[in-house]
Amino acid sequence: MSVKKVVLAYSGGLDTSVIVKWLKDNYHCEVITYTADLGQNEDLEPIKAKALKVGASKAFVEDIRDEFLKDYVMGAFRFGALYENKYPLATALGRPLITKRMIEIAEQEGADAIAHGSTGKGNDQVRFDVSAVALNPDMKIIAPVRDWELKSRDAEIEYAKKHNIEIPITKEKPYSIDRNIWGLSVEAGPLEDPFFEPTEDIYSFTTSPLEAPDKPEYVTIDFEESVPVALNGEKMDIVTLVEKANEIAGRNGVGRVDIVENRLVGIKSREIYETPGATLLLEAKRGLDELVLDREALHLKDTLAIKYAELVYYGYWFTDVREALDSFAKTLTKNLTGTVKVKLYKGSATTVARKSPYAIYNQQLATYDTTDTFNHKFGEAFCYIWGLPLKVSAAVKREQNK
Ligand code: ARG
Which of 7, 16, 139, 385 is most buried by a 10 A CB count? Predict the structure, then answer.
């Protein structure tokens, strides 16, 4: 394959720094790097400088947290989508947006390929590759880690030394970590043994529930059409709000997930997630769902949430079906406006109060006191009709067994 110019997803770490050099040597092409700020909590200017130092002709860095939260995270949030019941999809939601920006930059810069540092056995390669072909079917895709001869970290360090590529001086943790504003994913190292209990040093986004304050902390979240708009009564933009939610939930030990999950490529993998803000906001949103959505709407939304999570996890972001589900969820959740109070205490987040102008909860119908307006007599007829098919069927069975 011949390549003239490539846009590389660049994190500033060892892998992607080695890739800059490797691409130039193997394809004799120009390399442009792209680094997105999705809220990974890193200083981006040094990353830009490093990209240029290791041989990129241009280095793009940009803060896309707002777009990430509004157009990607909120899609999954409306559904309350969790992959395999636990994972709020932080890493998975970031990939299509990064790919979209890379394709846009490639087109603008006249590049004929994009490249990323994902391995051949993970989900992220799928999300990059599949998003790229969906957006530009002619764009070439290079994933050096799938192709190259550098089979270990030591081999990469060797290569880096030989080519004067700066090696990160910080003591490397044995884990593979991906972080953004919606959550942090940790895998590999000792975690590969599913019977190994994660040690405290693995966590960096949440306080240990054991160390968390002994008094509960309360947070109120205001929602407008399913989107969080205020925290503790203060209106704020979505980026600030999620950051605050991370901070508050994080200090109360909320949002630790330990899962053995099914990767798309057929391998089971053990992952630790830390999603303090996401866990808090999803809990609060659920409180509003319960108050506002009727039974059929809630149950259908919950069923489709599983599908939505799969689409995101599988790299099927840029598809008609995902877009159609987004439209469905927007319509369904348009009345999700209201206020929810959540109690945080040593790792738990529990909705304790909720209100909405669109609540279809009716106290006069629900109550057991004298203000009750429900006509109990109707209960008998309802039960008769509801049970009728069972009654008929039971009679037939009895007759057969005689
Ligand atoms: N298993 C998660 C996913 O497929 C996270 C992948 C990235 N994880 C990591 N530790 N680098 O979305």
Answer: 7
How far, in Å, is the centroid of ligand 1 from the Cα of 271? Answer: 7
The per-residue pLDDT for range 125-177, each reduced to its tens digit, is 999 999 999 999 999 999 999 999 998 888 998 999 999 898 776 666 789 99
Residue pair 248/280 in contact (Cβ under 8 Å)? The answer is: yes
Instruction: Tabulate helix, strand, coil % of the chain (nearest 5).
Output: 45, 20, 35
Sign of the alpha-carbon torsion through 381, 382, 388, 391: negative
124 catalytic residue (yes or no):
yes
Domain, as residue range, for 167: 5-172
pLDDT tens per residue, range 85-127: 999 999 999 999 999 999 999 999 999 999 999 999 999 999 9
- Of 172, 205, 234, at which residue does a domain stop? 172
Per-residue pLDDT band for 315 (boundaries 50, 70, 90) equals: very high
pTM over 0.85: yes
Question: Nearest residue CA, atom 1 of ligand 1?
Answer: 271
**Contact in structure between 24 and 47 (CB atoms under 8 Å):** no
Concerning whether 369 is annotated as a catalytic residue, the answer is: no
d(CA 187, ligand 1 centre) in Å: 7
Ligand 1 atom at minimal distance to the Cα of residue 271: 1
| Catalytic residue check, 176 | yes
Do 293 and 226 have their domain in common? Answer: yes
Residue in 17, 101, 124, 179 annotated catalytic: 124
What atom of ligand 1 comes closest to residue 175's alpha carbon?
10
Helices marked H in 333-377 — which ranges? 363-366
Residues 322 and 378 in one domain: no
